[in-house]
Design brief:
Elements lengths: L11 E4 L2 E4 L4 E4 L3 E2 L12 E3 L4 E9 L4 H4 L1 E12 L4 E8 L3 E3 L3 E6 L7 E13 L4 E4 L21 E6 L6 E4 L10 E6 L7 E3 L9 E4 L2 E2 L6 E4 L2 E4 L9 E6 L6 E6 L9 E4 L4 E5 L4 E10 L2 E2 L6 E3 L6 E4 L8 E8 L5 E3 L5 E5 L9 E8 L7 E8 L6 E5 L10 E12 L5 E7 L3 E5 L8
Parallel strand pairs: 5-13, 30-37
Antiparallel strand pairs: 1-2, 3-6, 4-13, 6-10, 7-8, 7-9, 7-11, 11-12, 11-13, 14-31, 15-21, 16-20, 17-18, 17-21, 19-20, 22-29, 23-24, 24-28, 25-26, 25-29, 27-28, 31-34, 32-33, 32-35, 35-36, 35-37
């Protein structure tokens, strides 16, 4: 005989003159709350941050009598999403399989089905099979406590409730209303001397500045080397086994180089060991742009996507596939993301940013902040920009009296909000990278 399910308290069961009284078990589900008869009084607010592909729920049961020891209990659950337009849990998004159980269990739930952000209800269904009577005992069809949601019953103190929200996305900045070109490419040349050489002819034509590393250490121009007419001159003789790297861009763009000399890996702030992933991570000062980076370890250039991978969630994070240890020297050569860095002749610059995904919840805003100090202790200008439906790119024209030859630092905050069914407001904030500019003409002082 198939199992039938209903979500309410079972009172009595009578057959052949025998009366059996059973009490419905209670299910406790981690990361959720019990929904109460007054929907504005959820006993506690459980907020799940949707950062991965699954959410794990642990189901634990409290049986009120010994029937669990002698009989099979059937259980399944359904998840409904709250519709704020009609104020009803009327969107059924998931139904589990039937579990025959005597103990609790855990289950991973795919987050893509949630379409977060939102409020969610978990309804539980039970059945007993009485071995003595060879019949299924199901719970009576009670009305439950419908409260304000007459089109989707919920049971007072029995059904479970949770909120699932995606984190606030970090704004990605660009300048002057347009993103910078990604066509320029960082190139690298590796030289392995046979010993005794002081000069090296470079076969490729190089425009602009170069960065030279010697056995992993960055050399100082003029002090350690000179570069003229595509010839590299070292101030000291090389030895066999030395490794020389030359980095440059195809269009002569200015490069940024960071050197991490690991003396004590436990104290090195830029290196982190992720115990959950079992990987060493490097955090650089500025975000990477395009595929424009070269990373070397102890003078040897690493292969992207083989020796290291770039984080898809943090453009300042490099994930190493091998071990990093004391005595290692890491060089990261790259062009940072933003095009408006340093000096500009534009006396009315505009600052833009974008999100990788359009805002789903329109209760949110961006705040552009401008300061004369890099720590943003004193904000001299601030502009709020509200979310716009189906829009991921935003821009602000600075309507503020700027000064010539003054460093201005700026960043953008993304504040997304979610209002729950119990009228609680959840605010989540992320902040872009910080950058600076300076107006290098006196036209702004004209009158």
């Amino acid at each position: 005989m198939g199992m039938n399910f209903n979500n309410s308290v079972y009172k009595t069961y009578k057959t052949n003159g025998r009366v059996s009284v059973y009490t419905q078990p209670t299910v406790n589900i981690t990361n959720t709350s019990k929904i109460m008869s007054n929907i504005l009084g959820v006993d506690s607010l459980n907020v799940l941050m949707v950062t991965g592909n699954t959410i794990t729920f642990d189901f634990n049961f409290d049986y009120k009598n010994k029937i669990n020891k002698d009989n099979t209990v059937g259980y399944r659950y359904e998840i409904f999403k709250y519709n704020p337009m009609v104020k009803v849990f009327n969107q059924k998004i998931y139904q589990s399989e039937v579990f025959n159980l005597k103990e609790g269990f855990g289950q991973e739930f795919p987050t893509k089905i949630l379409h977060a952000d939102g409020d969610y209800l978990i309804k539980s269904y039970f059945t007993y099979k009485d071995e003595k009577l060879f019949k299924n005992i199901i719970f009576n069809d009670g009305n439950g406590d419908t409260g304000k949601f007459k089109n989707r019953n919920y049971d007072d103190g029995l059904d479970n409730y949770f909120v699932a929200i995606k984190p606030s996305e970090k704004p990605i900045l660009f300048s002057n209303g347009s993103t910078s070109s990604e066509k320029d490419v960082i190139k690298g040349i590796t030289i392995e001397p046979i010993g005794g050489e002081e000069s090296f002819i470079i076969g490729e034509k190089i425009r602009g500045e170069i960065i030279v590393t010697f056995n992993g250490l960055v050399l100082s121009k003029k002090h350690d080397f000179t570069f003229e007419n595509n010839i590299l001159y070292l101030n000291e003789k090389s030895r066999k086994g030395d490794i020389i790297n030359i980095f440059y861009t195809s269009k002569g763009e200015t490069l940024t180089v960071e050197v991490i000399d690991i003396l004590d890996i436990e104290k090195e702030k830029k290196i982190n060991y992720n115990k959950d992933k079992g990987r060493f991570e490097l955090y650089i000062n500025k975000g990477l742009r395009g595929n424009k980076e070269i990373i070397s370890l102890n003078g040897l250039v690493l292969t992207p996507d083989l020796d290291y991978i770039r984080s898809i969630s943090d453009d300042k994070r490099i994930i190493f596939m091998g071990e990093i240890k004391n005595g290692d020297i890491i060089n990261v050569v790259y062009t940072p993301k933003l095009s408006l860095i340093g000096n500009t002749y534009n006396i009315n610059p505009s600052i833009g940013w974008y999100l990788k995904t359009n805002p789903i919840n329109l209760i949110g805003k961006f705040i552009l902040e401008l300061s004369k100090d890099k720590n943003f202790k004193n904000i001299i200008y601030e502009k709020e920009v509200p979310y716009v439906s189906n829009k991921s790119v935003y821009k602000v024209d600075l309507d503020f009296k700027l000064e010539s030859f003054v460093n201005y630092y700026y960043r953008v905050k993304n504040i997304k909000s979610h209002k729950t069914i119990n009228n609680s407001t959840i605010d989540l904030e992320s902040i872009s990278d910080e950058y600076s500019f300076k107006i290098v003409n006196n036209k702004i002082n004209s009158y």
